[in-house]
Amino acid sequence: MTGVWDLAVVGAGPAGAAAARAAAEAGARVLLLEKAEIPRYKRCGGGLIGPAQRALADSGVDVSGLARDLVGRFTFTHRGGRAFTREAVPFLPMVLRSELDATLVGLAREAGTELTTGVTVGAYAEQDGLVTLGTSGGPVLARAVVAADGSASRASAYVGVHCDLVDIGLEAELPRPPGSDWDGHVLLDWGPVPGSYGWVFPKGDVLTVGVIGSRDQGPAMRDYYRAFVASLGLDLGTAIHDGGHQTRVRTAGSPLRRGQVLVAGDAAGLLEPWTREGISFALRSGRLAGLAAVGELPSYEQAVESVLGAEVAAGRRALAVFTRRPGVVHRVMRTPPLWPLLQELVSGRTTMADQLERRRVRWLVSLVE
Q1: Is 112 found in the same domain as 42?
Q2: What is the pLDDT of residue 1?
Q3: pLDDT surpasses 80 at 184
Q4: Are 247 and 266 in contact (CB under 8 A)?
Q5: Range 230-240 average pLDDT
Q6: CATH code at position 211
Q7: Which strands form 197-203's sheet, in the order they lie side by side?
Q8: Alpha-carbon distance 232 to 218, whole Å?
Q9: Does some domain include residue 131?
Q10: Is there a domain that residue 187 lies in?
């Protein structure tokens, strides 16, 4: 870790790996720091929506080779009842984050990135055009830093990122019960806590089962989690992994950089507010941060707003409607036009921002509101 690096990247998830690779391909000398060994378990739903699939394909990743399952059947419930199922040709790949992240780090290394694992970063300081990182392995000097170290990021506080939507996610990775009908099949449950939902995502011989909702409703979310898992006939005592994590959504206008320190992905609070989808936001913001950090983009903030701003704003509005009227949202989703539209949204052939520009959609959303 000696010498002065053009770019130091903190965190080897999708955002960090994308930033490192983009900068390395631009000719920068890049150091990627990760506190764990690669591959490592990472709590995540693991669904690859259209923008994530495109970003990975553009990086040369074989998404079909990574996918543990390909989903085309969705069951929707409201508080565990009123179930309905829709089915189509499979269109949503499901991956394990350990495998996805290892693949992305491998690509960054192929581009020339130097990887150092087992290192934590505790402090940031800037002087005379250099950033000094205080790490468990000694100081690291770099001309710029991209911090992509998750929702508990120290760099986020250093930069001054403010997040006004903070959620708690509770999730387990469980062995798939023998003979169970989860091949290509996702369950989404609109939960009892306002703005919450639960999920079952299939990944080969394991199921990812979890819930997410406001951190302010922590006890109620834990009750929902236990009840949801039990309602599926699953046992948390058999979990391979079981725990919680925090997600945060950046307040509009909040800073994304301070001096030569940029934040990306969850560290920047960049994710879709309603579904809390973060992989595509991490891949896209990470790449932009890596390019901006080495002078390949004139403004990181403007690039993020241009690429992601409308999606975040639309997601905020969708979350507000869902929080207020989950039962109405459930009924509307049951109507015939909504299933093809959901496929379009998940596949990335349209966005919520685009749909909110349509007169009929605006009228429907206003009616629900």
Answers
A1: yes
A2: 74
A3: yes
A4: yes
A5: 96
A6: 3.30.9.10
A7: 81-94, 69-78, 185-190, 197-203, 206-214, 163-175, 241-250
A8: 21
A9: yes
A10: yes
Question: Alpha-carbon distance 295 to 6, whole Å?
Answer: 11
- Determine the structural domain holding residue 196 and report its residue range: 63-96+164-248
Residue written as tokens 């929902």? 224
Q: Choose among 111, 106, 116, 128: nearest CA to 35.
A: 116
Average pLDDT score over the chain: 96
Residues 322 and 327: their CA atoms lie apart, in Å, by 8
Question: What tens digit of pLDDT does each residue of 136-146 get?
Answer: 999 999 999 99
Q: How many structural domains comprise the chain? A: 3
Same domain membership, residue 132 and residue 21? yes
- DSSP code at position 236: G
* 323 within a domain of the structure (yes/no): yes
Per-residue pLDDT, 199: 98
Q: Give the span between the Cα atoms of 106 and 137, in whole angstroms.
A: 22
Instruction: Identify whether residues 86 and 120 lie together within a single domain.
Output: no
Residue 143 DSSP class: S
Q: Is residue 140 domain-shared with residue 280, that is, in the same domain?
A: yes
Nearest by Cα to 290 from 20, 30, 101, 59: 20
**What residues does 123 pair with on adjacent strands?**
134
Question: Both 92 and 128 in a single domain?
Answer: no
Cα(260)–Cα(155) distance, integer angstroms: 11
Residue 363's pLDDT is: 80
Q: Is the pLDDT of residue 369 over 90?
A: no
- Given this model, what pLDDT does residue 360 score? 79
Q: What do you get for the CA distance between the two ends of the chain, in Å?
A: 54
User: For residue 260, what pLDDT is reported?
Assistant: 98
Is the torsion defined by CA of 270, 276, 278, 281 positive or negative? negative
Name the nearest CA neighbour of 319 among 165, 181, 205: 165
Residues 322 and 300 in one domain: no
